[in-house]
Structure formats: C-alpha cells, structure tokens
Recover the amino acids of this structure.
C-alpha cells in the first residue's frame, strides 16, 4: 500500500492531549484515537468524548471530498481505538 499522508490531528476540546492519528492510502483512511478519559465525578469526559467522535467522523467525511495529488478517490474510512464509551461510572 502506498501511504500518501499520515499525521496526528489534536481534538479541539481535549484537556488530555487526545486526537486522531491517521494513515491514508489512495483509497483507504485508517485512524486510531483514544478519546477523553473519565477523571472522577468532576470531569467525566462524556461530553468531550461525544464531541471528539463527531469531530473525527467529520474529518473522515471531509476526506471523501478531497483528492490527494490526483490519486483515486477515498473509498473507505475506519476509526478504531479506545473510545472510553463505558459511562456506567455515572451511576
């Protein structure tokens, strides 16, 4: 696979330095992230996580409209990682 781009994009609302790392080939964007963590009752990170996954999703959606150097258009975007999506601690 030819890698045409790779980088880290920090989330705009992270207090913990979180963001999206991604690698792009002509037809695939593969991203990994670690969304904001729970740090106690005063900072659950739930609102931040929701905004962060939306931010990562919108980034991927924009990539479908972007052609890099005349390469074939993107066909698939995948986001994986530690999403910290267990909000049972709120109980």
């Amino acid at each position: 696979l030819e890698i045409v781009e790779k980088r880290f994009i920090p989330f705009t609302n992270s207090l913990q330095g979180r963001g999206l790392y991604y690698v792009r080939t002509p037809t695939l964007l593969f991203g990994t992230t670690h969304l904001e963590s729970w740090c106690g009752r005063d900072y659950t990170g739930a609102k931040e996580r929701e905004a962060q996954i939306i931010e990562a999703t919108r980034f991927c959606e924009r990539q479908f409209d972007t052609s890099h150097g005349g390469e074939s258009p993107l066909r698939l975007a995948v986001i994986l990682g530690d999403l910290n999506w267990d909000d049972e601690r709120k109980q």
Remarks:
- The first strand starts at residue 5 and ends at 10.
- The helical segments are 46-63.
- The chain has a mean pLDDT of 87.
